[in-house]
UniProtKB/TrEMBL annotation:
<feature type="transmembrane region" description="Helical">
    <location>
        <begin position="372"/>
        <end position="389"/>
    </location>
</feature>
<dbReference type="GO" id="GO:0012505">
    <property type="term" value="C:endomembrane system"/>
</dbReference>
<feature type="transmembrane region" description="Helical">
    <location>
        <begin position="295"/>
        <end position="316"/>
    </location>
</feature>
<feature type="transmembrane region" description="Helical">
    <location>
        <begin position="45"/>
        <end position="66"/>
    </location>
</feature>
<dbReference type="GO" id="GO:0016020">
    <property type="term" value="C:membrane"/>
</dbReference>
<keyword id="KW-1133">Transmembrane helix</keyword>
<feature type="transmembrane region" description="Helical">
    <location>
        <begin position="6"/>
        <end position="24"/>
    </location>
</feature>
<dbReference type="InterPro" id="IPR006694">
    <property type="entry name" value="Fatty_acid_hydroxylase"/>
</dbReference>
<dbReference type="GO" id="GO:0006643">
    <property type="term" value="P:membrane lipid metabolic process"/>
</dbReference>
<feature type="transmembrane region" description="Helical">
    <location>
        <begin position="348"/>
        <end position="366"/>
    </location>
</feature>
<protein>
    <submittedName>
        <fullName>Sterol desaturase family protein</fullName>
    </submittedName>
</protein>
<dbReference type="GO" id="GO:0050479">
    <property type="term" value="F:glyceryl-ether monooxygenase activity"/>
</dbReference>
<feature type="transmembrane region" description="Helical">
    <location>
        <begin position="78"/>
        <end position="95"/>
    </location>
</feature>
<keyword id="KW-0560">Oxidoreductase</keyword>
<keyword id="KW-0472">Membrane</keyword>
<dbReference type="GO" id="GO:0008610">
    <property type="term" value="P:lipid biosynthetic process"/>
</dbReference>
<dbReference type="Pfam" id="PF04116">
    <property type="entry name" value="FA_hydroxylase"/>
</dbReference>
Length: 405
């Protein structure tokens, strides 16, 4: 069978998170919070899922540029691998720095910095939109003459290394602090303390930050998250709130040149009152949610289902049709949206559940030769439609403990 063994990243990730959680618990360190971890992993599932549709395109772009426009014919040997390592790290530094200092790029990167905790789950907070921006930066390397295969391998190495930086369990590493990026350096980068803002952009080597004046040593305990924390656990709001803020600010700015300048200026140039206005328009009032056993159990179950589905989709990627991939993606994305909505005890979750049930019914009818499962799901859809209000109240009582949230 032609399986995609990159699917093993999913259980590998969960294993490392579990080890870190148990180690922190043993030391009585409160490094994890339930809702924060759920949100972090939800963002990561969406990124891995959507990345299946575009990662091949990125590779083809690198390969096309190399075959048609490469300035040099660079061979693969020890020296060129070392040079590529240095160049990838340098490009990564500038991509990362622009991701913080340019509004258009920050709208994609901000999701990575929303977590108010700092552990391995935070490494999953990456969006597919970041990959489109990164690709534009990486294109300079095949243009110079590095083959797409070399670049792809080096990017995988850099991505894997970055995962291990997101932890509070590792202290300072002595002399290595002067050479490589360590968890201590990256804790500074994720901090919202004023003296830590816009520091330590490097991915594997800290020398670039020291060279370009963006280095800061970890001296006091970092406070994690955005300087203005989000007022919502909504999956969609996390992804698009700053895009909406930026679009609103551009719309309110007079003159084409001033609009363009705002897109490429720093995030602090987006007026702070815009987010408050958008929150008032698009978000329901914040609720004090009691995390009951039922609520936690249900959300955890949804996340486990999403992770299992993601694992299967990646593993059997080469055997799945595009329509099935699309239906699976929609089902998982709705599940992730639902997880955030349940954590906020929103009333519209039942409608999302209904949509998921319909998707399951259609998918099972199309792809299963046995009609038993589609028939059962179809009966559930019909029954729910006929007794919608009654089923809705029972559902809310089961999940929230109340009939009308």
């Amino acid at each position: 069978m032609h399986l995609n063994y990159l699917a093993l990243v999913v259980p590998g990730f969960l294993m490392m998170v579990g080890i870190e959680y148990l180690a922190a618990k043993k030391q009585n360190k409160a490094y994890f919070s339930y809702d924060d971890s759920i949100l972090n992993i939800s963002v990561g599932i969406a990124e891995r899922l959507l990345n299946l549709f575009v990662v091949g395109i990125f590779y083809q772009v690198f390969d096309y540029i190399h075959r048609n426009y490469a300035l040099l014919d660079i061979p693969e040997n020890v020296y060129t691998w070392i040079i590529l390592f240095m160049l990838v790290d340098l490009v990564w530094y500038w991509y990362h720095r622009f991701g913080h200092e340019v509004n258009l790029f920050w709208s994609a990167h901000i999701v990575h910095h929303q977590s108010e905790e700092f552990n391995f789950t935070v490494s999953a907070r990456i969006t597919v939109f970041q990959y489109f921006i990164r690709t534009g930066f990486w294109c300079v390397l095949p243009l110079v003459g590095f083959p797409a295969s070399m670049l792809a391998i080096m990017l995988l190495i850099h991505g894997a290394y970055a995962f291990f930086l997101h932890t509070r369990m590792v202290g300072k590493l002595g002399i290595l602090e002067h050479i490589i990026v360590t968890p201590s350096h990256h804790r500074v980068h994720h901090a919202s303390n004023e003296q830590y803002l816009d520091k330590n952009y490097g991915d594997m080597l800290i020398i670039w930050d020291k060279l370009f004046g963006t280095y800061a040593e970890e001296k006091e305990e970092p406070v994690y998250g955005l300087t203005k924390p989000l007022e919502s656990k909504s999956f969609l709001w996390q992804h698009f709130h700053f895009t909406m803020e930026l679009f609103t600010a551009v719309k309110q700015t007079r003159g084409i040149w001033n609009k363009v300048k705002l897109l490429f200026s720093k995030p602090e140039h987006v007026p702070g009152h815009i987010r408050a206005a958008l929150e008032k328009t698009f978000l329901q009032p914040k609720k004090q949610v009691k995390f009951t056993i039922n609520l936690r159990g249900y959300v955890t179950t949804q996340l486990v289902i999403s992770l299992a589905a993601l694992f299967c989709v990646i593993l059997f990627e080469h055997y799945l049709t595009i329509p099935f991939m699309i239906v699976s993606t929609l089902f998982i994305l709705i599940t992730l949206i639902n997880c955030g909505a349940i954590l906020e005890q929103r009333s519209y979750i039942f409608y999302l559940e209904f949509i998921r049930m319909i998707l399951l019914s259609v998918a099972s009818y199309v792809y299963l030769e046995n009609l038993l499962v589609p028939a059962i799901l179809g009966i559930c859809v019909v029954y729910t439609t006929l007794y919608f209000t009654s089923m809705q109240k029972r559902y809310y009582r089961l999940v929230y403990g109340i009939a009308n949230p």
